[in-house]
Specification:
The structure holds two protein chains of two kinds. Helices cover 18% and strands 19% of the residues of chain A. By secondary structure, chain A is of the alpha+beta class. Chain A has a single domain, classed as Ubiquitin-like (UB roll) (Roll). The termini of chain A are far apart. The longest helix of chain B has 15 residues. Chain B is globular. In chain B, helix 1 runs parallel beside helix 8. The two termini of chain B are 44 Å apart. Chain B has eleven helices and 26 strands. The chains are: A alpha+beta, B alpha/beta. Chains A and B meet through helix 1 and helix 3 of A and helix 3, helix 8, strand 22 and helix 9 of B.
Chain lengths: 106, 404
């Protein structure tokens, strides 16, 4: 299974295995990664699973959908490398992906 | 600080309470009791991706088993609570055990409202509330099957959309003159009616089901004096709160367990959160909400109140529904007297209906329109006033409109 690393605002790192086809958010929740609230459970309805993708990876990921784009537009402290982790579907190419968790989802 | 917290109900509100209690520093015992075989799971996907078959069961669970271990939460599943003895601060379980509590949280949710018409007990009449319901439905949810859906609300229409997608022959019966009448405004009802019709779903509005016909299993639905042949029925006519335990223990209930704005009942040791509660909403009116948002937010407030740090619950309610490729997102609670403002064109399959009250945004219904939904939600929370003509003007971006 692809391994994905989450980095907390305080620098703590946690690397978790996520099954192909699952979302990065689902993998984070399943491995108890703090700071990924995912209130809506992955319906792209709440913008509480916001992460920052490591710049080295940003271009390698599938582009944001229009819905994700607009949801992020309103997320707190969104940046060019922001993603909603519920919309990032894990593929074999994502092994080694690094994402940072924001300070707050609300 | 309490030392023994018991949570009745293992759903979205219950699991949020566990998480919040620990996050707020509670170190005592937590026991959560659920009457289903499964640990807390998400219900929204049941009528959507899970029914479609594109979502494995293990993905429904809200938390991994490790969460309960690490949180020190004892999870008692497959078990009903038969009584609450508030004087002794004990609950009795179906297996005869009793548990003591310092603080008790009722997070018992709802159960489906059942139809009582003739034939209601026939095989082939389904309801949709839990995993077992969908697994049962799944066995007969096959292309070519004629499904009659009773109720044109969220559940009925989500199942209709999945059915149409999977090649079932879908007919919907709704007693009201429009779809989702309880949840959305007329323009949104009309839009969804057109979308369902375009997908081949037959809609019968203003039509009450009189009986289910069939010898051993369902063969037809009698409505408006006509028998519509059907192989399968799905009833989605709403839910009723599970407030019997509270009622029997002498707590005030009225279509839900009555709680204040801190999720507390009249008994300072008993709290309630989620779909099972009736509470004074942020607009000062008593409401009972059926949504993930309320389960999460009210449970957070209940956790704070249980720890002696009550904080008024006043979050804006929000809801969503997925039908076909349409995402309906709603924030706030509309009233019939609100002024409606349409932003965008339904024909573009991307629009929003704003509800203005005293010049301020009170609710928004957005179809494939996340900026309108998100901005609207924030404007509702902040009581932002805005001119209707400005709101309707697509050339002004929502970010600018958000300033009022």
């Amino acid at each position: 299974m692809p391994k994905i690393t989450f980095i907390q605002p305080d620098g703590t790192e946690q690397t978790v295995e996520i099954a192909i086809g699952w979302s990065v958010m689902e993998g984070a929740v399943r491995s108890l990664v703090p700071g990924i609230d995912a209130d809506c459970g992955g319906a792209c309805a709440c913008a509480t699973c916001h992460v920052y993708v490591d710049p080295a990876w940003a271009a390698a990921l599938p582009a944001r959908s229009e819905m994700e784009e607009t949801m992020l537009d309103f997320a707190q402290d969104a940046r060019p490398n922001s993603r909603l982790s519920c919309q990032l579907r894990v593929t074999s190419d994502m092994d080694g992906l690094v994402v940072r968790v924001p300070t707050s989802q609300h | 600080m309490p030392e023994q917290i018991v949570i009745i109900g293992a759903g979205q509100a219950g699991v949020q309470a566990v998480q919040s209690l620990r996050a707020e520093g509670y170190t005592g015992a937590i026991t959560m009791i659920g009457d289903e075989a499964y640990p807390p799971y998400q219900r929204p996907p049941l009528s959507k991706a899970y029914l479609l078959g594109s979502f494995a069961r293990e993905r429904l669970f809200l938390k991994p088993d490790a969460f309960y271990r690490e949180a020190g939460c004892e999870l008692i599943l497959n078990t009903v609570v038969t009584a609450i003895n508030r004087a002794a601060k004990k609950v009795t379980l179906g297996d005869g055990r009793t548990l003591s509590y310092d603080k008790l949280l009722l997070a018992t949710g709802t159960r489906v409202r059942k139809l009582s018409c003739p034939g209601a007990e026939l095989a082939g009449v389904h309801y949709l509330r839990d995993i077992a319901d969908v697994d049962g439905l799944q066995n007969v949810f096959k292309a070519g099957t004629r499904i009659a859906i009773v109720g044109g609300g969220y559940i009925g229409l989500e199942v209709a959309a999945v059915g149409a997608k999977r090649g079932l022959d879908v007919t919907v019966f709704e007693t009201a003159d429009r779809l989702m009448a309880r949840a959305v405004s007329k323009p949104v009802s009309t839009f969804f009616a057109e979308e369902h019709a375009a997908a081949g779903v037959k809609l019968n509005l203003n039509t009450s089901v009189e009986a289910f016909e069939g010898k051993e299993k369902i063969e037809g639905v009698r409505a408006g004096g006509i028998v519509h042949p059907a192989d399968l029925v799905l009833v989605g006519i709403g839910v009723v709160p599970n407030d019997m335990l509270a009622r029997e223990s002498g707590l005030a209930c009225q279509d839900g367990v009555i709680v204040d704005q801190n999720a507390m009942t009249a008994d300072p040791s008993v709290f309630a959160a989620g779909d099972c509660t009736r509470h004074v909403g942020r607009e000062g009116v008593e409401i009972r909400l059926e949504c993930v948002q309320n389960a999460i937010d009210q449970a957070k407030h209940a956790a704070l109140a249980m720890l002696g740090r009550p904080k008024t619950y006043s979050e804006v309610p929000w809801f969503w529904s997925d039908q076909y490729d349409l995402k309906l997102q709603i924030a706030g609670l509309a009233r019939p007297t609100d002024q409606l403002v349409l932003r965008g064109d339904p024909k573009a399959r991307k629009f929003a209906v704003f509800h203005l009250r005293d010049g301020a945004v009170a609710a928004v219904e957005a179809v494939n329109a996340a900026p309108e939904y998100l901005t609207g939600r924030k404007m509702i929370a902040d009581h932002i006033k805005v001119l209707p003509e400005k709101l309707a003007d697509l050339s002004i971006p929502m970010k600018q409109i958000a300033q009022g």
